[in-house]
Amino acid sequence: MSQIKIVNLQKSFGDFTAVKNSNLTINDKEFFVLLGPSGCGKTTTLRMIAGLELPTSGEIYLGDEEVGMLRASERDIAFVFQLFALYPHMNVRNNLSFPLKMQGYKKSDIKNRVEEAAKLLRIDHILNSNISSLSGGDRQRVALGRALVRRPKAFLMDEPLGTLDAEFRELMCLELKKLHLDIGATTVYVTHDQLEAMSLADRIAVMDGGEILQADEPNIIYNKPKTKFVASFIGSPGMNFFEVNEGISKDQSFVNIDGAKFDIPKQFEESKGSKNFFGIRPENLTLNNNEGLKGSVFGVEYLGSRKIITVKTSLGEIKVKTDISISVKLNENVQVKPLNNNIIIFDGQTDKSLNSEFIK
Amino acid sequence: MDTSRSYLEPSSFSKKMAAAIIIVYAVITLIPISWMVMTSFKNVDSAISYPPEVLFEPSLEGYVNLFTNRSRQSQEYLDSLPPPENWYEELVRSREMVITGPSKFLGRYSNSMIIGFGSTFASVFLGALAAYAFSRFRVPLKDDLLFFILSTRMFPPIAVAVPIFIMYRKLGLGDTHLGMIILYTVVNLSLAVWLLKGFMDEIPKEYEEAAMIDGYSRLQAFFKVVLPQAMTGIAATAIFCMIFSWNEYAFAVLLTQFNAQTAPPFIPTIIGEGGLDWPAIGAGTTLFLLPVMIFTIILRKHLLRGITFGAVRK
């Protein structure tokens, strides 16, 4: 088990830069998730750590060793593919022993290790089955088993739950988390699914356009996003943004939006330009009849215990996540106001959040 | 309305029609072959009798003649010989002849085997390596190279017979096993590369990536993970290559005389007394048919899946 560190990592395919000048330190025994929309460079980053792609420039450290230009076979890492890539011409036992055979273990050692891993993953009863006869979940377990029999320095997983159906994905999520606690291996996990990321990760790095925008613990990523993209990508529905057509100065504690005055947390940083964004999460807004922004109810979605109400206002559509007990009718006139001071101002020029009493 | 079957399923009438067409086709194709096999078991007289005999007394004369050289002797000489030691000597004596030695057939037949299987193996092996490279790597001018490879099949191979004849004489490859193996491999290789590239493209590259992460080199991954999965393609390609090199006649006539002559140019030269020895020719072609038939039957399961490649993968 080892720390993974990437320094100024860059990868270009011809004119297209898939990963831009990235820096990241993944701690020993950490479950680290790379999260982002498709094409954001998360898989390319993972494949560079694995040695399936060579970096255009930059360094990758596995423990203390610089491995950037080593072959995949020389790095001692394990990789779980989205499509599992179990060898279809071998049975489960041979799939699991395949990586061990290369390392020249004794037959009895291979047998012991395979059975140990199979027991851990509860696939010991299907060791002699063919791959084609397995269910999706069992294939997933075999793929994990093949990764962990070797006891590698790190586990890399590329959307391993992507092909499972929703119910099963949740179950496998729990199992993965438990497995990680059991064996405590450094794990880098790539996904575009924020729920998966939130529930699995010790830390998450959000990527977009080849750049790492923020790497933090899930609750910090959610509550204190560093950029507007992170704020809108994380959370379902994402954060509401209102345009603020004024510069933000130091110590400012309110803004005018479309004539209405809104309190904001005391600002510690001034904005670069005169166009900025006021960001607030749907659950930090509330509906009432006498105060705040006027609008009419445009849509209501029930989410079991919560309700998402879309309100059409002069500033555009606003999503409000409220308690199930609040009942509104379509087209009813309502007013929207912040529930608390969990408000972030994003600089219109850099898209970055400005430091304030809320975000320090 | 009959709702017991889906619209996609053929009706029982069209199923019967299909079966009838296949049976008619099979009969038409099998008539020459069964005639050939029948001829191989006739004697010289019944083979050329008119009207042709469908029912006849089977004889192994054709096979004996195929494997032996004989000479005609006078009755007095035959009488002076000790009694025949075995059935085939007796058969030959009854025709007033004696066996003077084995014929060249067995040698020609084994030449065919060596050259046929040798070139098939070489085509499939080299073809698989090339197809893998074309399928996985960024080869400069890939499309042009692939077209160039394919273009070698745009003319009949015999069109280059004269230059090849001269080249082979200069290189000392004429009438050698190696020369024929190289020649047939060259002709088959374009087919092998194109067919196998199609199969390789179908195999997700994650398999060899997984193997490389598991500690194997790319070449090891190719042999242990890619090739086993390309078995259907390899079987189909091997059959096509084998059929070509086994049947090839024109180059074999032109380039081989003694050492490396294959069976196809040899069989028609089996001449009996006062004409062609049809039972012996029939016996030769029947035996010639067997290896490809057995080879195809062995690989048949793969072939059926292979020809519909792309359709059954998941």
Please tag this protein with its features:
heterodimer; A: 360 residues; alpha+beta; Rossmann fold; OB fold (Dihydrolipoamide Acetyltransferase, E2P); 2 domains; 6-stranded mixed β-sheet; 20 strands; B: 314 residues; mainly alpha; MetI-like fold; two-stranded antiparallel sheet; 15 helices; 4 strands; globular; disordered C terminus
Produce the secondary structure layout.
The complex is a heterodimer of chains A (360) and B (314).
Chain A: E1 4-13, E2 16-26, E3 31-35, H1 42-50, E4 57-62, E5 65-66, E6 77-80, H2 92-102, H3 107-120, H4 136-148, E7 154-158, H5 166-183, E8 187-191, H6 194-200, E9 203-208, E10 211-216, H7 218-223, H8 228-233, E11 240-244, E12 254-257, E13 260-263, E14 276-280, E15 285-288, E16 293-303, E17 306-313, E18 316-323, E19 333-338, E20 343-347
Chain B: H1 12-40, H2 44-47, H3 61-67, E1 68-72, H4 75-80, H5 87-94, E2 97-102, H6 105-136, H7 142-151, H8 161-171, H9 177-202, H10 206-213, H11 218-229, H12 231-247, H13 250-255, H14 263-266, E3 271-272, E4 275-276, H15 278-307
Antiparallel strand pairs in B: 1-2, 3-4
Helix pairs in contact in B: 1-15, 3-15, 6-9, 6-12, 7-9, 9-12, 10-11, 12-15
Task: Summarize this entry quickly.
The complex is a heterodimer of chains A (about 350) and B (about 325). By secondary structure, chain A is an alpha+beta fold.
